[in-house]
Amino acid sequence: MTHDAWTRVIRNATVATCVAGGPRYGLIERGAVAVAGGRIAWVGPDTELPAQSDRVAVDDASGALLTPALIDCHTHLVWAGSRHREFEQRLEGATYETIARTGGGILSTVAATRAATEDTLLELACRRARKLLAEGVTCIEIKSGYGLDLKTELKMLRIARRVGEVLPVTVRTTLLAAHAVPPEFENRADDYVAHVCDVILPAAAAEGLADAVDAFCEDIGFTPAQVERLFKAAREFGLSVKLHAEQLSNQHGAALAARHRALSADHLEHLDEDGARAMAAAGTVAVLLPGAFYFLRETRLPPVGLLRQHDVPIAVASDLNPGSAPLASLLLNMNMACTLFRLTPEEALAGATRNAARALGLAAERGTIETGKVADLVLWNVQHPAQLSAQYGLASPRLLLRDGAPQGTTGQ
Ligand code: NIG
Ligand code: FE
Known about the structure:
Blueprint: E1 8-16, E2 27-36, E3 39-45, E4 57-60, E5 65-68, E6 70-72, H1 84-91, H2 96-101, H3 106-115, H4 118-133, E7 137-143, H5 150-166, E8 170-178, H6 189-206, E9 212-215, H7 224-236, E10 240-245, H8 253-259, E11 264-267, H9 273-282, E12 285-288, H10 290-295, H11 304-309, E13 314-316, H12 330-339, H13 345-351, H14 354-359, E14 377-380, H15 386-390, E15 397-402, E16 405-407
Parallel strand pairs: 1-4, 1-5, 6-7, 7-8, 8-9, 9-10, 10-11, 11-12, 12-13
Antiparallel strand pairs: 1-2, 2-3, 5-14, 14-15, 15-16
Helix pairs in contact: 4-5, 5-6, 6-7, 8-9, 12-13
The site of N-(iminomethyl)-L-glutamic acid has 13 residues, from helix 3.
C-alpha cells in the first residue's frame, strides 16, 4: 500500500502528542508522523508506519523530540514606547498599582501607541513575534488595549492581523478596549464602557478585526458590572469572551467569565474555590501567566491545587507586554510555570499546546498531534519533553513545520 498523498514523514521520533488521557505527554517512544499537505495524516509507533511512496520526504529524527508547535494564547505584543523607567521606580519602592494610579503604567503606553505610525508599530510587533516564532511558536493571540479610542484600537487590531500576514504565524485577535480608562473619560468609567459597547466593539466587529473580547477586571481596571455589560455586547456580535481576572485582587471575575462561557480567565492568582468550580463547569481555561507574577514580584500563587482538583484545563502564556511582562519567551514562561507555580513539565507543555489551543477556541484544529489536525510540528534538539521546561535557553527547534511545510529555524 502506498500513500501518494503524503508529503512528508518524520520517523524514529520521541513523539509527545500532548493528547490527554493516555500516557504522560501522550508519548509514543519510537514514533512516526505522516503529513499530507497541511494536515497530520498518520501518527503511531514507527514499526506500524505504512509503506510510503519514494516521492515522500522522510526525516529520520534519530530519537529527537517531536511536539505540536507551541501556541502563545495571551500576548499584548503591539505597543510603542518603553516602560524601563517604571522598572527602576518599582526597584526604588513604587508599586505597579501606584504607578498606574498616577498616570503611568498602561496609560503611558497608550500615549506612545497613539502617537506611533502603523509602520513603526508593525515593525516593533513583528520583532517581538519573531522571538516567539524562533522558539517553535506558530500561533499567537494578540490583544489591543493600548489605544483606548476608536482609531487606535482598530489600528492595533489591524496591525495584529498584519503580523499574521507578514510572518509565518496564525494570529487570533482580541479587543481589549476595556484595559484602562483613557484620559478623555477620566473618572467616567461607565461612560467609557458605554463607548466601548456602542462604538468601538461594533466597529471592530463590522471590520472583522476581533476574534474575541477581553477586559481587565480589577480595582485599577473595570468592575464586574462593567465587564458584564461588555460581555453582553460581545455576545450580540457573536464574539467569544475572555477576562483578565483575579490578578491583583479577588473580584470574582472568573465566575463572571464562566457564566458567560468565556474561553479563558487569565492570571487568577486570587481565584477562590467557587471561581474554580464555575470555570470547570463552563469549560473555561485557566491561563496562567508566570512572567507577570515574576516581573511584578507577586507573592500570592495561583491556586493550582484547586484547578487540578476541579479539572480546570490549565494553559501557560507569556502575557508579553511592556509593563508587567516584557519577556519575549514562551519557553521561559513554561520554565517559570514549573519553578514558581509548581506545574509539572507535562502540565506546562499541555499548557502551551493543547490547552492554549482551547483557550483560543482552536482545539479542534490545533494543540495536539492527531490525525486531521493542522500539521504545525516542532522537531527539537532535545530528546525528552521535560527538557523544554527544565532547561531554559537550551532547547530549540531543529525542524519546524507550519501547515506541513518546513520553515527556517535558527539551528541546533
Ligand atoms: O496582562 N493586567 C493588565 N494588563 C497587562 C499589563 C499591561 C501593562 O502593564 O501594560 C497584563 O499584565
Ligand atoms: Fe495580559
